[in-house]
Specification:
Number of strands: 14
Structural class: alpha/beta
Distance between the termini: 27 Å
Helix content: 25-40%
Radius of gyration: 23 Å
Shape: globular
Number of domains: 2
CATH superfamily of the largest domain: P-loop containing nucleotide triphosphate hydrolases
Largest sheet: 6 strands, mixed
Order of helices and strands: HEEEHEEHEHHHEHEHEEHEEEHEH
Strand content: 15-25%
Strand order of the largest sheet: 6-7-8-3-9-10
CATH topology of the largest domain: Rossmann fold
CATH architecture of the largest domain: 3-Layer(aba) Sandwich
C-alpha cells in the first residue's frame, strides 16, 4: 500500500465538519475551550416480512457520480509507524494476515473493524505486547523485532481496561509510572502534577482512584500514558462508556496533543469519534485491510453524501425501489430497515411519498463511516 500524504495541521480543538440541517444527525457536543496548563512537549418496533426486503432487486445500479479528490502528493520516507506484510499467527490461526500501513508523524490514525478482526492484535505488536510472526514493523525507525525495548521508549499506551492502582491516589499512580520511565522522584512528581492539571484532575490529586467517576479514571489513564513524554500515544477505545460531555472533553484534549506533534493511534467503535479525530484510518476484517483513507474520502468514495433509511409496513407491498433506480446509487437491507444511498435523499423521499410507496417511517441523514463499513463487509460494527 503506498504511503499517504501527511495530514493538514489542525488546531487543538478543531470542530467537526459542518453538519447538515436539523433533519440529519445531530452534531456532536461542542468542544470545550483549550486550557492554559499543558504538558511539556507532550503529548423498529415491527420486523418487516420477508417479502418487504427479499424482493429488493439484486441488479446493477448506476455508477456513483465521480467525486473530485486531489491526487496524493509525495510522502516523506520517515513514518512514525510502518508495517509491511505484517503477520501474527496463534498456532494455525492467523489473526493478522499480511497487512501494510504507514502512520505519519503528528497525525491521528485509526483502526476500525469488528471484534476479532485483528486490530487490537496489530496494536499490541506495535507496543510490544505480542511478537511479530512475519513481515516488518518499525516504530520511529526502530525495528520492533530486533529492538523492542528501544521502540517502547517512544510509545505511551492507554488500554481499554482500567488497570490503574485503585488503592493509590491519582498522583501516586502517575509518580509510580514516571519512575518506571526513568524519571527521578522530583521530575516524576512535577510531571504527574502537570498532567493532572492538564486533564482537570488537580483537585483530585490525593484522592484514591476507587473514588473517581468513570470519566475521571479514563482521563487518568490517558495522563498515565503520557507520563514518559512519548512521541506516539496508542489508545484502545479511549471513550468507551463515557457520557457525551466527557467524550467531548477528551476529544478536545486529544486534538490539542496532536497539535503539539504527538502521533495518535486509536481503535474505536464510535463512528462519530473516528470521523472527528482520525486524519486517516484502515478498516480491518478477518485479519486483512479492507480499505484505507481519510473518513471524508471513504464516505464519498463508497456511499455518497446522504442516506434515506426506510421501514415498510409489516403487511405492506414489496419495496418499490426498482422504480427509482435512476435516483439510487445502491441500497442495503439491515434487519427491518432499508438503507438507500442517494445523492439527494430529500428529493427521493418526496417522490416516494407522492407515489404512495407505503413507508412506515423514513429518516434522512448524512452518510457515515458505519455505512462504509456496512457496504464493505455486509455487517455493522459492534
Amino acid at each position: 500500500m503506498p504511503d499517504p500524504a501527511p495530514p493538514a495541521q489542525r488546531g487543538p480543538t478543531a470542530p467537526a465538519a459542518a453538519m447538515p440541517p436539523a433533519r440529519a444527525v445531530t452534531p456532536a457536543a461542542a468542544m470545550p475551550p483549550a486550557h492554559a496548563v499543558t504538558p511539556a512537549a507532550a503529548p423498529s418496533a415491527h420486523a418487516a416480512p420477508a417479502s418487504a426486503t427479499a424482493s429488493l432487486p439484486a441488479t446493477a445500479v448506476p455508477p456513483t457520480p465521480a467525486i473530485a479528490t486531489p491526487p496524493a502528493p509525495a510522502v516523506p520516507a520517515a513514518a512514525a509507524v510502518r508495517a509491511q506484510g505484517l503477520v501474527k499467527c496463534y498456532g494455525s490461526f492467523t489473526a493478522v494476515d499480511g497487512i501494510d500501513f504507514a502512520v505519519l508523524p503528528g497525525e491521528c490514525f485509526g483502526f476500525l473493524g469488528p471484534n476479532g478482526a485483528g486490530k487490537t492484535t496489530t496494536m499490541k505488536m506495535i507496543y510490544g505486547a505480542c511478537l511479530v510472526t512475519a513481515g516488518s514493523l518499525t516504530v520511529m525507525g526502530v525495528d520492533v523485532r530486533t529492538d523492542i525495548r528501544e521502540a517502547k521508549r517512544r510509545i505511551g499506551v492507554v488500554p481499554q481496561d482500567e488497570n490503574l492502582e485503585f488503592e493509590l491516589s491519582c498522583v501516586e499512580n502517575l509518580q509510580v509510572y514516571g519512575r518506571f520511565h526513568g524519571l527521578d522522584r522530583r521530575r516524576a512528581d512535577r510531571r504527574a502534577r502537570e498532567l493532572l492539571s492538564y486533564f482537570e484532575l488537580a483537585d483530585r490529586a490525593d484522592a484514591r482512584v476507587e473514588t473517581l467517576s468513570g470519566g475521571m479514571r479514563r482521563r487518568l489513564l490517558i495522563a498515565r500514558g503520557l507520563i514518559g513524554d512519548p512521541a506516539i500515544l496508542i489508545l484502545d477505545e479511549p471513550t468507551v462508556g463515557l457520557d457525551p460531555a466527557v467524550r467531548a472533553l477528551l476529544w478536545a484534549k486529544l486534538n490539542e496533543l496532536k497539535a503539539k506533534g504527538v502521533t495518535l493511534i486509536l481503535t474505536t467503535h464510535y463512528m462519530d469519534e473516528a470521523e472527528r479525530l482520525c486524519d486517516r484510518l484502515v478498516v480491518i476484517d478477518k485479519g486483512k485491510v479492507v480499505v484505507e483513507g481519510s473518513p471524508r474520502d471513504l464516505i464519498a468514495r463508497h456511499v455518497g453524501a446522504e442516506v434515506l433509511e426506510l421501514r415498510f409496513a409489516a403487511n405492506g407491498a414489496p419495496s418499490p425501489l426498482e422504480r427509482y433506480r435512476d435516483r439510487i446509487l445502491r441500497h442495503e437491507t439491515v434487519h427491518d430497515s432499508v438503507l438507500v444511498f442517494t445523492p439527494d435523499a430529500d428529493d427521493l423521499l418526496h417522490r416516494m411519498t407522492e407515489d404512495g410507496a407505503g413507508m412506515v417511517s423514513a429518516l434522512v441523514r448524512r452518510a457515515s463511516l458505519e455505512d462504509v463499513f456496512l457496504r464493505l463487509t455486509g455487517r455493522r460494527l459492534e
